[in-house]
Design goal:
With 402 residues, this protein is mainly α. It has one domain. 65% of the residues lie in helices and 4% in strands. It contains 15 helices and four strands. The strands form two sheets. A two-stranded antiparallel ribbon has the order 1-2. A hairpin with a 2-residue loop joins strand 1 and strand 2. The longest helix has 32 residues. The radius of gyration is 23 Å and the shape is globular. The relative contact order is 0.16.
C-alpha cells in the first residue's frame, strides 16, 4: 500500500507531461530494504533492552551514513550498468543535497528528544525502543506528507513560491526569533488521547500496552511515543518543503514545448528515509554534546532562507545557469555553511557570565530546587496519567506487561 501511494506521486508528474515515472520496482525494492533493516535493528542488533553507549552509537551512526552514501553512489552509476535510466550524476547530487539538508535539520529533533526523555524520566535502556517506533511512525507520516506535497507541487507549480516564502520566514524566525524550550505539558494531542484512549496509571517498562483485570490498556509510555511523533510532524513541516525545493528538475512539455519544473518524489523520499533511519544512533552519539554546536542553529536558519530564495528565483536561475551548475552551487553553500558552523562552534567558546560573576552554591539540600523538581515531575506524571514516573533502573513491573 505504501509503495502504491509513493509511486502515485510519480504518476501525477507523468500525467501532466512533466517527467517519466520511476519504476514501481524501485519503490518496492527500496521499501523492502528499509523494512529488512528495521527488523534487523529491533530484533537482532537491539534484541535486549540496554543502555546505548557512545561507542555503539557512533558505530551505528557511521553504519547508517555509509548505507546512505552507498545508495547515492549506486544512484550515480545506475545508468552505466543498464538499470535506473532515470538516475545518474545529477539525480545523485540532488539526493545527497536533500540528505544533508534533512540530516542537519533533524538535529533540532534530537534536542527535543533530550527534553522529553528528561521530563518523563525515561530510563536509558528503554529509550532505543521508544525511538525505534517513533522513527517507524515518522517514516509513515513523512511518506504521506511527501505524496501530498509532491503531487500538489507538480500539479500547481505556483505552490513552489508559497513554500519558498514559508522557508524564508522560518529561517528568519529560527535565526532572529526568541529561543524557547519545548513544553510537553502543554501538548494538546496527549490531552485528547487521554480522554479517548484507555490509559493505565503505571509505566510497564518499555511496553506500550498492558492488561489489567483482563482489560486492554495503553501505558503512559505510549503517550510519550505520541509526543515523539507529534514533534516529528512539526519539524517535517519545515524540512520536507526544504528538500522538495532542491529535488527539482526542469523539463519541456512534450506537447506545448513550455518549460516546466517537477519535484522528484523518489529523491525526496529516499533522502528523508536515510536521514531519519540514522536519527536514533545520532541521538545517542550526540545527546550529551549538542550544546557545543551553538552556531548550528543560525547556520540552519541561513540554509532554510537560502533554499526559500532559490525556490522564488527558480525561473530566473534556469535562464542564467544549467542544472549541473545550480546543483553544484547549492551543494557548496549547504556543505560550506554547516562546516563553518561546526568549526566556529569548536573554536569560539561561549561568552562567560556578565562581570565574571559566579554564583556560589552552598552544599546541602535546596528546598526551592527540590520543590520545583517535584512539581515538574508531578506535571509530567499527570500529563500521561501515571501515578509516578519510572525510575532510572529497569521497571520491576515489566513481566506484567503484554
Amino acid at each position: 500500500m505504501l509503495n502504491l501511494l509513493l509511486a502515485s506521486a510519480d504518476h501525477a508528474a507523468e500525467a501532466v507531461g512533466q517527467a517519466p515515472e520511476h519504476s514501481p520496482l524501485f519503490w518496492l525494492g527500496f521499501n523492502g530494504f528499509v523494512l529488512v533493516m528495521l527488523v534487523l535493528d529491533l530484533f537482532v542488533f537491539h534484541r535486549k533492552a540496554h543502555e546505548v553507549k557512545i561507542r555503539e552509537a557512533l558505530l551505528f551512526s557511521a553504519f547508517w551514513i555509509a548505507l546512505a552514501v552507498i545508495f547515492g553512489i549506486c544512484m550515480w552509476f545506475a545508468p552505466q550498468i543498464g538499470v535506473g535510466e532515470g538516475f545518474g550524476p545529477e539525480k545523485a547530487k540532488l539526493y545527497f543535497l536533500g540528505y544533508v539538508i534533512e540530516k542537519a535539520l533533524s538535529v533540532d529533533n534530537l534536542f527535543v528528544f533530550v527534553v522529553l526523555f528528561t521530563f518523563f524520566k525515561i530510563p536509558s535502556q528503554h529509550q532505543h525502543r521508544l525511538l525505534f517506533w517513533g522513527v517507524f511512525g515518522a517514516l509513515v507520516l513523512r511518506a504521506i506528507f511527501i505524496v501530498v506535497g509532491v503531487t500538489l507541487m507538480n500539479s500547481f507549480t505556483w505552490l513552489m513560491y508559497v513554500f519558498g516564502v514559508i522557508l524564508i520566514l522560518t529561517g528568519l524566525k529560527l535565526g532572529f526569533g526568541k529561543e524557547s524550550e519545548p513544553h510537553p505539558e502543554k501538548n494538546i494531542v496527549i490531552r485528547i488521547a487521554r480522554k479517548i484512549l484507555p490509559v493505565s496509571h503505571h509505566f510497564e517498562g518499555s511496553h506500550f500496552t498492558t492488561r489489567i483485570d483482563g482489560k486492554f490498556y495503553f501505558t503512559p509510555m505510549f503517550l510519550v511515543l505520541l509526543l515523539v511523533e507529534t514533534t516529528d510532524v512539526i519539524f517535517a513541516v519545515d524540512s520536507i518543503p526544504a528538500v522538495m525545493g532542491v529535488a527539482q528538475e526542469v523539463v519541456k512539455d512534450p506537447v506545448t514545448g513550455a518549460v516546466k519544473r517537477y519535484t522528484d518524489s523518489f529523491i525526496v523520499y529516499t533522502s528523508n528515509v536515510f536521514a531519519i533511519l540514522g536519527l536514533r544512533a545520532l541521538y545517542f552519539a550526540l545527546a550529551g554534546i549538542m550544546g557545543m554546536f551553538r552556531f548550528l542553529k543560525p547556520a540552519l536558519a541561513f540554509i532554510l532562507a537560502f533554499i526559500g530564495a532559490k525556490m522564488l528565483a527558480a525561473d530566473y536561475l534556469h535562464t542564467v545557469m544549467d542544472k549541473t551548475t545550480e546543483i553544484t552551487i547549492s551543494l557548496s553553500v549547504v556543505f560550506g555553511t554547516l562546516t563553518l558552523a561546526i568549526i566556529l562552534s569548536l573554536l569560539i567558546p561561549p561568552k562567560p557570565a556578565p562581570h565574571g560573576e559566579v554564583k556560589k552554591v552552598e552544599p546541602g539540600p535546596d528546598p526551592e530546587q527540590d520543590a520545583a523538581k517535584a512539581k515538574r515531575q508531578g506535571e509530567a506524571a499527570k500529563l500521561v496519567g501515571a501515578d509516578e514516573l519510572p525510575d532510572k533502573t529497569p521497571d520491576q513491573a515489566e513481566g506484567a506487561a503484554k
